[in-house]
Amino acid sequence: MTYCVGIWTRHGLVMASDSRTNAGHDQVNIARKMHIFSQPGERVFVLLSSGSLSCTQSIITLLQRDFDQGKGLAKAPSLYDAARIIGEQVRRVSDMDREALERDEFKFNVNLILGGQVRGEKPGLLIIYPQGNPLQASEDSPYLQIGETKYGRPILDRGIRFDKTTLEEAAKYALLSLDSTMRSNVTVGPPIDLLAYGVDELEITRQRRFTAGDPDLVKIGVRWEQALRQAVGRLPQIRFRVSRDAGQPQSPQEETIQLVEPSNSPELSGEARGQVSQRPPS
Questions:
Q1: 3-state DSSP call for residue 66?
Q2: 204 Cα distance to chain centroid
Q3: What tens digit of pLDDT does each residue of 173-195 get?
Q4: Cis peptide leading into 134, omega within 30 of 0?
Q5: Which end of the chain is more exposed for a tag (fewer CB within 10 A), N or C?
Q6: What is the distance between the alpha carbons of residues 173 and 75, in angstroms, rounded to a whole number?
Q7: CB 234 within 8 A of CB 212
Q8: What is the crossing angle of helices 215-234 and 167-184, to 10°?
Q9: Domain assignment present for 85
């Protein structure tokens, strides 16, 4: 399985991916799922891939061949046009391989995330589906995921804000999202590729691969686990109390659940109070 995530903020892009592939319980390998197409000063495209490894390798090979010859992504006038060029290659590989795959009961399963920028336009983030059609991230939903998405989504939903999240914070959210996924799903694993791209840089300058056991990656996971436990300790206390209907002294006892604010509980920030007040009643 795979997990890849792209985060888009007003400061730029953060892209992250795992590298574990498997074809059954006893065949686990490593394959890079982050692919870069760059012409410094002109365009930067970062492509994350999930699904059939053989199909995604074919798509990347076709894209790289054209790029090296000055065609395809090397000439795309916009990020949207780049997504369409990628979609054309997805359909091309589908036309070549889908019939044979489905004859042996395998699905043509390829999903891609494209992030980047062409000189003269803003950075952006798109997902490209197995049919080759793209969908763009928005300021209201500024991140995209492919692969094993459910475990790493809650931290992104709660934390990522297009206008306020810095690249440094987005990088931490990406690592935490991957850490949560690896903790709950053994088919996702290191090495972890992480890339940060700032608006109008038009070249790749911040990129790192975290191998298994990397001290910094371990530190992120341990600190996050400790912070979660501390945060739970600061939540309102839950108390179980026995209650009895005053008008019926012989009625059976029932337990009630009460939330009690600790006396040393810190005050909510103005933003947090607003979020609480906007929640619908349960």
A1: helix
A2: 20
A3: 999 999 999 999 988 999 999 99
A4: no
A5: C
A6: 33
A7: no
A8: 90
A9: yes
Residue pair 27/182 in contact by the 8 Å Cβ criterion? no
What is d(CA 106, CA 109) in angstroms, rounded to the nearest whole number?
Answer: 9
Domain that holds residue 215: 3-226
Residue 216 dihedral angles phi and psi, to the nearest 5°? -70, -40
Question: Is the residue at 258 inside a domain?
Answer: no
Number of structural domains in the chain: 1
Residue 51 lies in a domain: yes
pTM: 0.87
Please report, for the domain that includes residue 50, its CATH number. 3.60.20.10
Half-sphere exposure of 137 (CA within 13 A, CB side): 28
In angstroms, the CA 209 to CA 217 distance is: 10
Distance between CA 32 and CA 19 in Å, rounded? 5
Structure confidence by residue, pLDDT tens digits, 30-53: 899 999 999 999 999 999 999 989
Q: Which residue has the tokens 């970062």?
A: 46
